[in-house]
Design brief:
The chain is of the alpha+beta class. It has seven helices and four strands; from the N terminus they run βββααβααααα.
């Protein structure tokens, strides 16, 4: 069974989907089914159940929102992908809060040629576990915020939160 929890955040609800304590999806939506349908068929076959508390994953979100910007890093997660996509997602998790990289820089961090910027963009757009795999920390080299699956205002808020531009609740 895939367990789902909605965690309130200043930019709207964050849905967490977990299987046996491992996060398989997360995203800024009020509807768990919007993330569930993006899972692989074998995971969808397990079914979906909304629960009150996922424990460590939801605790990590609350700690992140309270100012512990590395709290999300300790949460175990699993998402499908090619070896290249997995390298890019792993490299994303190494981009520290309060910093950003370009798509080309992300490719280099993943040990891929700088010309793999398009693959980096694809890995970000297909990321199922935001903000735990922090694709919001990737900006286009041409400037601006670029796109974000959950909307640019959410990306802007996450970056402002991580840079200290937003006061953290105590």
């Amino acid at each position: 069974m895939i367990d789902a929890q909605l965690v309130p955040t200043p930019v709207g609800p964050l849905v967490l989907l977990s299987r046996e304590g491992v996060l398989v999806a997360a995203g800024f939506t009020a509807d768990p089914s919007q993330l569930f349908i993006r899972l692989t068929p074998d995971l969808r076959a397990e079914g979906l159940e909304v629960v009150d508390d996922l424990g460590p994953a939801s605790e990590a979100v609350r700690a992140y929102l309270a100012g512990d910007l590395t709290a999300l890093d300790a949460v175990p997660l699993s998402q499908p992908g090619t070896p290249t996509r997995r390298r890019l997602h792993a490299a994303l998790r190494e981009v520290k809060p309060g910093t950003t990289v370009s798509y080309g820089e992300l490719a280099v961090l993943a040990g891929l040629p700088r010309t793999a910027a398009r693959a980096a963009g694809s890995a970000c757009s297909q990321n199922l576990i935001a903000p735990f795999v922090p694709c919001h920390r990737v900006l286009p080299s041409s400037g601006g915020y670029g796109g974000y699956y959950y909307g640019v205002p959410v990306k802007e808020w996450l970056l402002a939160h991580e840079s200290g531009a937003i006061a953290n609740p105590k």
